[in-house]
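Standup notes, structure subgroup. Blocker cleared on the iron/sulfur cluster input:
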Amino acid sequence: IVKEHLPGVEATIFFMDIRAFGKDFDKFVNRAKDDYHTRFIRARISAVEIDPATENLIIQYNSEAGSLIEENFDLVVLSVGLLSTAGIRKMAARFDIEINACGFARTSSFTPMTASRPGIFIAGTFSGPKDIPETVMQASGAASAAASLLTELPIRELREELPQEFDLRGEQIRTGVFVCRCGINIAATVDVPGVVEYASALQGVVHSQEFIFACAQDSQKLIGEKIKELKLNRVIVSACTPRTHELLFQKTLSSSGLNPYLFTSHNLISISESR
Ligand code: SF4
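Run returned:
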């Protein structure tokens, strides 16, 4: 990831044994080696010292041939395993659910979201180390499993308090365009600043800007602020498919006083993937 963002960085990974945990994580290691030329060195590091002249860090290790080597680095990151926390144990005790020998919630391979106590569902690292996609998948699964228990209950509609919608009668069109880099997923193939500049020159566009992650909470807050500050009455987000986040952006409009149907989603990720 560092190499994707800063191609000039020279990265070295010292390891004793690599077991890439999870689906496709071996591919991740191979990509780091083959596509990004990250050095992987099997060695036990014996010392990390500060170079007094440069304040860089000197790593000392034995090569596989047995010679003592010293190398200079700008930054050293210690990667440690994920451990259970006192918080997990406390929460498990409060909900009266079992934990396993490693201190994570006990589940089974066939029911990975089901806790030992009926009616309690688990997602993410509460039941062990997980990556983000698996955590998101489990969160959806846990929410669906919880919802399935509620079908027998009488329906009570919960309504969120929303501000009064702006009256736009007679208003000129004032469009805000927000273009998402999606980290490097879009930015690696689409000239995002170029799209922002192009959009800013279009008729009716009064604001155009880019985001690193348009769906992040701070980006939503900023879109809401821009709607109010610049009196935007149309919002276009150029990002992923509407299936992913259309509802999220519509909700941002509603909470800022705009009718949610004044939002348009522009699917930039399909364009970037087709290149
Ligand atoms: S809005 Fe879509 S494209 Fe942008 S960061 Fe989120 S998932 Fe990626």
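Discussed briefly. The chain has a mean pLDDT of 92.
Next: hand off to the docking folks.
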